[in-house]
Amino acid sequence: MAIRVRYYVACYKVYNVKLNSTEQEDNFYRIKNDFIDYWRKPSFKYNTIGHAMVPPAQTTWFEERLDELGLAKDIYIDDVYKYLLAREETSMDISRSDNTFSFNDYYRYSQILDYIRTLEATYENSTDINLSVIEAGTTAEGRPLVYIKLTNQTPMMNKRIIIIEAGINPRQWITIPSSLNIIHRLKDSNNTRLLNDFEWIFIPVLNPDGYEYTHTNLRLWTKSRSTSSNLGAICPGVNINRNFNIDWLNSDSSSSPCSHLYGGIESFSEVESRLIQSLLEEYGNRTSAYISLQNNGGFISYPWQYERAASGLFAQHHILGMKMIEAMVDNYELDIASVAYGDRASGTSTDYMRYNGVLYTFNIDVVPRGQEGVVVPREEIQIIADDVWRAVSVLAENLL
């Protein structure tokens, strides 16, 4: 299949950014702006090498800032467009000619919808599994925005709820099969206890328009495709994970519609973030945990992300997070989100849910796979998805 990446990323470079002191970490903000796209933030504490995608117009500015901080000008990818071309056969989207659905592959949004609606039809008359697909709205480009409710027929009033969100950043494809794999695992007869006591809500693709755009146009897109800003026609989209009403637009966020960090014309300006808001309004008093699946580099993290401090439930989050990590095969780090990511960020979904009373909120950021960790090879999907399942199942067992 021919690659469909626009020349938008032609001549973009990716730099390795390695912080060698706490002083450099404290001054990290000096090598950030609205147009430097960090695939992964650097961290001195965790010896994490950051990857910064820099457009041609920003190269001189970026290298001057590196010099000021005493950081090496280490080019990791010299031309992002050529790099993506070279990965076409192994990492870009495909169109399957059959009707099978595998957790070792990536799929277009229409295929994902077909799969989950088939699941709903399969269990329509089940005396055991209760699975329903709810259409909660329509995206800017006319796609249905859906979530899945899963439990069993065990009579229990007001079961506690666990919400799993995936695909908030559309280029992080790996999060979507990871969420669907949890549904697959929960339906297994050995996991009935987790359905007896919980109702599960899954948003398998929170950003459908952005996700489709990563398949058809720009693989590294990070926003939705709405056009509500004054520059919407030429700079569409909002970063959904900067659009929540928690410290909105203050840190690692932008008021520029042309930035990949654009937080929107106001908080909850987007139908995607309003879906999460509506779930909180409807189920908040029953929701025990909210998990955001992401792909930023091998962390389980907990609030806060908008400030360098933990929430009042620090001890509970840390103890439970340690148990989740112990169950996983790959090596994950555990920390406050702002520390784990090496930077603060405003307007995130997990901070919003924790601030509004959800007991446990975690980001599960899968370990880097492939050369740079953003484009995860197909052969790694099942391994990662199974590890995410181990963490989620431990969380649920401990909540019991």
Automatic annotation (TrEMBL):
Q: Which GO terms describe its cellular component?
A: extracellular space
KW Signal (keyword) present:
yes
The protein's matches in SUPFAM superfamilies, at most eight in alphabetical order, are given as: Protease propeptides/inhibitors, Zn-dependent exopeptidases
Against Pfam families, the record matches this protein to: Peptidase_M14, Propep_M14
Keyword Disulfide bond set for record: yes
**Cofactors per UniProt?**
Zn(2+)
**InterPro entries, sorted:** M14A-like_propep, M14A_act_pep, Peptidase_M14
Biological process per Gene Ontology, one example term: proteolysis
Gene3D superfamilies recorded for this chain?
Metallocarboxypeptidase-like (3.30.70.340), Zn peptidases (3.40.630.10)
MF-aspect GO terms: metallocarboxypeptidase activity; zinc ion binding
Keywords in UniProt for this one? Carboxypeptidase, Disulfide bond, Hydrolase, Metal-binding, Metalloprotease, Protease, Signal, Zinc
* Domain Peptidase M14 span(s) in chain numbering: 105-399
- Which family is annotated? Belongs to the peptidase M14 family.
| Name of the protein | Carboxypeptidase A2
Q: Which organism is it from?
A: Papilio xuthus
